[in-house]
Amino acid sequence: MSRALILMYHIVADPLSSREAKYCCPPLQFEAQMHHLVAQGVRLASLDEISNALDGSVAWPNGAVAVTFDDGFADTFVNALPVLVRYGIPATMFALSDRLGAHNDWMSTRGFPERPLVSLAQLREMAAAGMGIGSHTRTHPRLPELNAVQKRDEIRGSKARLEDLLGCNIVNFAYPYGLYDDDSRRAVEEAGYRSACSVRSGFNGPDADRFSLRRIEVFGSDTLWQFRQKLKFGANEVSRFYPIRYYARRISARLGL
């Protein structure tokens, strides 16, 4: 089957509260997951490679896994980058161009712990280490709630600022909260991005919508067994019974039931 999987992480650190635990992958757990990918010989791909494959300029990376990080938390620099470099795993971090060196105010104002975001110096070091940098807008708004001018300012403005700060093309985008509408999608394409990631679960194939790529979220509570199941089935929620239901649905579909 021609399919590729994109993993989505947020915070690679121990949780500071029960409320954020879902979004925090403890460092030892993250390293175990990356070790598993390498030890199992999983085909690892960058978002750029997936974009090239969607263009038809390279072969589709069958069975590939891509690693992404949303929001630009400093913990990604501290805890994830060394692991990625050690294992030679390509990855992309979606940063907020106007929040470098700030904190996660879109979360802390809703009762989540305050966490620092990467500084410009850290972002440059990550790019120099080979990590792909993408845009997550300027300030992490809910794009469908903005008017057309505001959307383009967040989408196009973040691209221009990151390119100016880093001296490289920013071609990958991720929708904050995974929220977008037709105009948001159109604005991303008009701005010159090559791909945009959503939070819709599932695999991506050669015919995927490059501006609505699917991703699988890795939760802080995921055991290594659950991580393996997510890789296998392309689903956010897995359990001991999920494989039974999955194969039952496939059999039913083949039989036309």
Main sheet summary = 5 strands, parallel
Please state the structural category: alpha/beta
Number of domains: 1
Q: Helix and strand string, N-terminal first?
A: EHHEHEHHEHEHEEHH
The CATH architecture assignment turns out to be Alpha-Beta Barrel
CATH third-tier fold name: TIM Barrel
Radius of gyration: 18 Å
Dominant shape: globular
Strand order of the largest sheet: 4-3-2-1-7
Number of strands: 7
Q: Can you say what the CATH homologous superfamily is? A: Glycoside hydrolase/deacetylase
* Beta strand %: 5-15%
Structure, explained:
By secondary structure, the protein is of the alpha/beta class. It has helices spanning 27-39, 47-55, 74-87, 105-108, 120-128, 148-166, 182-191, 224-233, 242-255; strands at 5-9, 65-70, 91-95, 132-135, 172-174, 195-197, 216-217. It contains nine helices and seven strands, in the order βααβαβααβαβαββαα. Strands 4-3-2-1-7 form a five-stranded parallel sheet. Strands 5-6 form a two-stranded parallel ribbon. The longest helix is centred in the middle third of the chain and has 19 residues, at 148-166. 40% of the residues lie in helices and 11% in strands. The protein has a single domain (5-255), classed as TIM Barrel. The model has no long low-confidence stretch (mean pLDDT 94). Helix 1 packs parallel to helix 3 and helix 6 packs parallel to helix 7.
